[in-house]
Design goal:
Blueprint lengths: L4 H8 L7 H40 L4 H34 L7 H13 L1
Helix pairs in contact: 3-4
């Protein structure tokens, strides 16, 4: 719901400059409403999940420590996981793009393959 890349790309690729201000205002209004709806839905889900966890911890008191520990581990891993997405393709891509005579096209193709696989 919050992905709006297609609309923005369509706006950027427009060949005709007629009514560009009107189209810009429409796009801004569309994105504004879309983001408001996204944050409202996210807030509702967050409240629901908080209530569910509060009920769960009230019923199963002995699992609270394990739940907190698992939540911290999961949160930490979710912060580290994107580095793998970006770091491994960059290891191959940076040397291929910075080569003087551009003879490292296989490094670049390898980085693209790693990016698609990961």
């Amino acid at each position: 719901m919050a992905i709006s890349e297609n609309k923005i790309l369509e706006f950027k690729k427009r060949k005709h400059n007629s009514n560009i201000d009107q189209k810009k205002k429409q796009l801004e209004k569309y994105l504004h409403y879309k983001f408001i709806i996204f944050f409202i839905i996210t807030f509702i889900f967050t409240i629901f999940f908080w209530y569910y966890l509060a009920c769960f911890c009230a019923i199963y008191r002995n699992t609270q420590i394990h739940l907190i520990k698992d939540t911290i581990i999961s949160f930490g891993l979710s912060l580290l996981y994107p580095f793998g997405f970006c770091l491994f393709p960059c290891i191959f891509r940076i040397p291929s793009l910075s080569a003087k005579n551009k003879n490292r096209k296989y490094f670049y193709k390898t980085s693209l393959l790693i990016q698609k696989v990961i």
